[in-house]
From TrEMBL:
Keywords: ATP-binding, Nucleotide-binding, Transport
CDD domains: ABC_DR_subfamily_A
InterPro entries, per database record: AAA+_ATPase (IPR003593), ABC_transporter-like_ATP-bd (IPR003439), ABC_Transporter_VariousFunc (IPR051782), P-loop_NTPase (IPR027417)
Organism annotation: Longimicrobium terrae
Gene3D superfamilies, A to Z: P-loop containing nucleotide triphosphate hydrolases
SMART domains (alphabetical): AAA
Protein name: ABC-2 type transport system ATP-binding protein
PANTHER family: ABC TRANSPORTER ATP-BINDING PROTEIN ALBC-RELATED (PTHR42939)
Organism phylogeny: Bacteria, Pseudomonadati, Gemmatimonadota, Longimicrobiia, Longimicrobiales
Length: 239
């Protein structure tokens, strides 16, 4: 395992036509931790995740995934990262099995290892037997599970989850969380956005709060404990 942080973000700035969204955002994910990505609608969570995954170009600042810059060395950065977007993308005309083989090949996994890990994750998320189903025929939850497996297959060190637990049945989410805990024990780190604030408050050790006007706060220690006790959190909404 490398000593390099799974993810570091340094002085990230991003503005759209209507104003700044991310302002000098700086933080790093430590091996083994889970960090909540918090903020109301339009706060900039997807923009941040897009800048990390190489999907959106920051105006200033940098991102490193296991030390690799997604803009100058996307292949190495992608090897470090597993991303489940809020709206997962699957090739509609591929079967689940073909989709996962395609992802494993893109991540240069050896065939035997990829097949064994695919089978294990399909079983874990209750998708065993769905390998032959076309992606366009999957239910929403099944599609999300396929996207989660695609993101985790190559054992990334930086796991980025955008509302990834949405629509998962309870046993599947419990098994996914246990899997993520096992990955964390091996040195992976998780950045998760979720509207289930009770869950992220309990599971994550810190919270990155994005606010209007490109403001941000990393809530940790007592500030994180206070946020978890806040009435707005108990009411189910945190800003
Ligand atoms: N491609 C774009 N062009 C212009 N403005 C954009 C673009 N994408 C996002 N924005 C604006 O940037 C701000 C942040 O949007 P973003 O999607 O990052 O927020 P979010 O926190 O992910 O929101 P939500 O919780 O609703 O998904 C919003 O004001 C949005 O209108």
């Amino acid at each position: 395992m490398t000593d390099m942080a799974p993810l570091s973000v340094d002085g990230l700035r991003k503005a759209y036509r209507r104003g700044p969204v991310l302002g000098d955002l700086t933080f790093a994910l430590r091996a083994g931790e889970a960090v909540a990505l918090l903020g109301g609608n339009g706060a900039g969570k997807s923009t941040l995740l897009g800048c990390i995954t190489g999907d959106r170009v920051p105006d200033r600042g940098g991102v490193r995934l296991c030390g690799h810059d997604p803009f100058s060395d996307l292949a190495a950065a992608a090897q470090c990262m597993g991303f489940v977007p809020e709206t997962p993308f699957l090739y509609p005309e591929l079967t689940v099995g073909e989709m996962l083989q395609f992802v494993a090949a893109a991540r240069a996994m050896d065939e035997g290892g990829a097949a064994a890990e695919t089978a294990r994750l399909l079983e874990l998320l209750g998708l065993a037997g769905a390998e032959g189903t076309l992606c366009r025929e999957l239910s929403q939850g099944m599609g999300r599970k396929t996207a989660i497996i695609a993101a985790l297959l190559h054992r990334p060190r930086a796991i980025l989850l955008d509302e990834a637990l949405n629509g998962l049945d309870r046993p599947s989410s419990a098994r996914l969380i246990a899997e993520l805990d096992a990955r964390r024990a091996e040195g992976a780190a998780v950045l998760i956005s979720s509207h289930d604030l009770e869950f992220v408050g309990e599971w994550c050790g810190r919270g990155l709060m994005l606010e209007p006007g490109a403001r941000w706060t990393m809530l940790e220690g007592e500030a994180w404990e206070q946020w978890k006790r806040a009435p707005s959190l108990r009411a189910g909404w945190g800003d």
